[in-house]
Fold:
Amino acid sequence: MSERTSRRGFAARPGDPESWIKASDAPSQRGDPSAAITARLTIDVTPALRGRIKVAAFRRGITVADMLRDLLAREFPTDSGEPS
Structure:
């Protein structure tokens, strides 16, 4: 029988979490130059909260993603005090 190659699986944990977190991914494939380097963040919220978030974004005329990016940038500014 042939031996299996030792490859990292889809859900394998990185050897060095700090460098893995800080590593930049390839530029966005959506063609949006303002979001050239992004990272996906997944959170669990209740269906009621999700609904309130979607309604608030709709009333403001923006996407949920844009609204939450702005909110997170205000809450967690860069060291210089300016949102990035």
Remarks:
- Residues 46-77 form one domain.
- The radius of gyration is 18 Å.
- The chain is about 40% helix and 0% strand.
- The mean pLDDT is 77.
